[in-house]
């Protein structure tokens, strides 16, 4: 059997810590997850956590990044099934809002994420979503489908609307009931950008 390289072992350690942290943060939340919860389950030491992520917050950021990337991929897949850039943009925003029903997304990304990592608008993963929205808005505006609105402003407002709707759904008392209301409002707000 071939011996693993140092890089492969480090990558394996990172994967184990992220998987362990993802499960612990989903079950207990950031505040109630101990360093031992994160390391003991996968037979690693605190030193491995510190070496790879700096601290618990650094590991949490890596978990949020992973989940957010999965969310973006799921939303993009739904958008790609649409026939037009406009319907794809709406599908992606509504899909992001709907993911607020997923308990893992709800707890880690939408509840604990802003409390631990600050404003989601500054997360690298959110900026990649903004880039995709910006490209769609620019294409729609160039095609004359949207009013002559500033592309950056419209993109940030659309992304902010989807994010805040998801945050609202995730933290309300009855997320399943609020979801269609949030999605309808998102569609109506976005529709205001369309040329009459």
TrEMBL record:
All residue ranges annotated as the HTH tetR-type domain in the record: 11-71
InterPro entries to which the protein is assigned, alphabetical: Homeodomain-like_sf (IPR009057), HTH-type_TetR-like_transc_reg (IPR050109), HTH_TetR (IPR001647), Rv0078-like_C (IPR049484)
Source organism: Paracoccus tibetensis
Record keywords, A-Z: DNA-binding
Residue ranges for the DNA-binding region feature of this UniProt entry: 34-53
Molecular-function GO term, any one: transcription cis-regulatory region binding
Superkingdom of the source species: Bacteria
Protein name: Transcriptional regulator, TetR family
Keyword Plastid assigned: no
Transmembrane segments: none
């Amino acid at each position: 059997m071939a011996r693993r390289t140092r890089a492969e072992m480090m990558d394996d350690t990172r994967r184990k810590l992220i998987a362990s942290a993802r499960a612990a943060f989903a079950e207990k939340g950031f505040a109630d997850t101990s360093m031992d919860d994160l390391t003991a389950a996968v037979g690693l030491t605190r030193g491995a956590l510190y070496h790879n992520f700096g601290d618990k917050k650094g590991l949490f950021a890596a978990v949020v990044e992973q989940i957010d990337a999965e969310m973006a991929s799921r939303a993009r897949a739904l958008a790609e099934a649409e026939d037009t850039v406009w319907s794809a943009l709406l599908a992606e925003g509504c899909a992001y809002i709907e993911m607020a029903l997923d308990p893992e997304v709800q707890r880690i990304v939408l509840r604990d994420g802003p409390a631990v990592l600050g404003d989601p608008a500054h997360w690298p993963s959110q900026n990649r979503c903004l880039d995709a929205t910006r490209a769609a808005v620019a294409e729609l505006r160039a095609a004359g489908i949207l009013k002559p609105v500033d592309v950056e402003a419209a993109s940030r407002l659309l992304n902010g609307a989807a994010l805040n709707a998801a945050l609202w759904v995730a933290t309300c008392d009855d997320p399943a009931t609020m979801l269609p209301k949030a999605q309808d409002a998102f569609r109506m707000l976005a529709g205001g950008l369309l040329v009459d």
